[in-house]
Amino acid sequence: MKKLLALILALVLSVGTCLALTSCNNDNDGKKYKIGICQLVEHVALDAATEGFKQAIIDELGEDAVEFDFQNAQNDINTCSTIINQFVSNNVDLIMANATPALQSAASATDTIPILGTSVTEYGVALEIENFSGTVGGNVSGTSDLAPLDKQAQMILDWCPDAKKVGLLYCSKELNSEYQVAVVKAELEKKNVEAILYPFTDSNELAQICTTAADNCDAIYVPTDNTVAENTGIINNICEPKKIPVIAGEEGICSGCGIATLSISYYDLGYTTGKMAVKILKDGADISTMPIAYADKQTPKYNKDLCEALGITPLEGYVVIE
Q1: Using CA atoms, how far apart are residues 197 and 201, in angstroms rounded to an integer?
Q2: Is beta strand 299-302 parallel, antiparallel or unpaired with respect to 260-263?
Q3: For a surface tag, which of 81, 156, 169, 226 has the fewest beta carbons within 10 Å of its beta carbon?
Q4: Which CA distances in Å does 133 have to 136, 160, 170, 220?
Q5: CA atoms of 212 and 206, how far apart (whole Å)
Q6: What CATH number is given for 33-145+265-291 in this structure?
Q7: Would the CATH topology of 33-145+265-291 be identical to that of 149-263+299-320?
Q8: Of 269, 298, 253, nearest to 152 (Cα)?
Q9: What is the residue extent of each domain of the chain?
Q10: CA atoms within 13 Å, Cβ hemisphere of 27
Q11: pLDDT tens string for the chain (322 positions)?
Q12: What span, in angstroms and rounded, lies between the C-alpha atoms of 193 and 191?
């Protein structure tokens, strides 16, 4: 009988210790955060950013401490607004806006719920902030996918040294795309290369505009553009038969239609955004003072299959897109 009582006492003490440890390790005191994620469209880069964001929060807070409400806007700005308004009605603790239109919708919908953007190139342009200093202020911050545009312009010349005309293909509805091609155009013209803008309004116009660009230019540049990313097959089916090389603003686009890119990791970018979310939700960080974060590094990469198809020898220092 004494042995049985001793055993029961030992078990009680063991369970109590475990509960105490669990309590000590649970910094959220049982709170479950609600996070709304509005992703503009499904493609490799944005998907990776969302996964990185979610994983960072799970790593920091635990899977049971957060409820994600993920919504895909199917590349429709009006749908972004509908999704964001629902998040606001549900009083989520934080909104993650993946891509520029999602960020713009969120910023218009609430000035109280913390908003973190990701996969956004230039916040000053996206939010129409003059003399942008790097910190949005208010209830908005996030991460930028901007790779140095002067280096991207030089990359075009490195890969296509004989190019006299470079077509800049982009969706005119995406403000950050307009910003990127304007900078790249200026950089190319400094080097006496003619840079021609080829804007299209949606995927229905893409084939026609891309064909015109391929017929009139020696090479094409496409920025980090969500409509392009969703339709790389259209661009490749036009440019590859015409032997027109495409330089891309990010890896996902490059794997579909480009020969080379200066790539960032969108997963890492999303992960950084997730760590910012934890600081806001758990540590009480003031989002209004949080500057926009940028990717730590860019990696020069090339599309092996497309280079072989076009007879282009990869440049030194570039790694293969897996």
Answers
A1: 13
A2: antiparallel
A3: 81
A4: 8, 35, 26, 32
A5: 10
A6: 3.40.50.2300
A7: yes
A8: 298
A9: 33-145+265-291, 149-263+299-320
A10: 9
A11: 444 444 444 444 444 444 444 433 445 567 899 999 999 999 999 999 999 999 999 999 999 999 999 999 999 999 999 999 999 999 999 999 999 999 999 999 999 999 999 999 999 999 999 999 999 999 999 999 998 999 999 999 999 999 999 999 999 999 999 999 999 999 999 999 999 999 999 999 999 999 999 999 999 999 999 999 999 999 999 999 999 999 999 999 999 999 999 989 999 999 999 999 999 999 999 999 999 999 888 999 999 999 999 999 999 999 999 8
A12: 6
C-alpha pair distances (Å), 165 with each of 157, 185, 192, 217, 285: 11, 11, 10, 5, 49
**Residue for token digits 């490799």?**
44
Residue corresponding to tokens 């105490």: 20
DSSP letter assigned to residue 316: T
Whether 167 and 220 have beta carbons less than 8 Å apart is answered as yes
Q: How far apart are CA 104 and CA 117, in angstroms?
A: 9
Assign 201 to helix, strand or coil: coil
Residue 12 is encoded by which pair of tokens? 């009680």
For domain 149-263+299-320, which architecture applies? 3-Layer(aba) Sandwich (3.40)
How far is Cα 298 from Cα 138, in angstroms, rounded to an integer? 30
Nearest-angstrom CA–CA distance, 158 and 315 = 8
**Tokens 């709304």 sit at which residue?**
36
The Cα 109–Cα 84 span in angstroms is 7
CB 38 within 8 A of CB 223: no
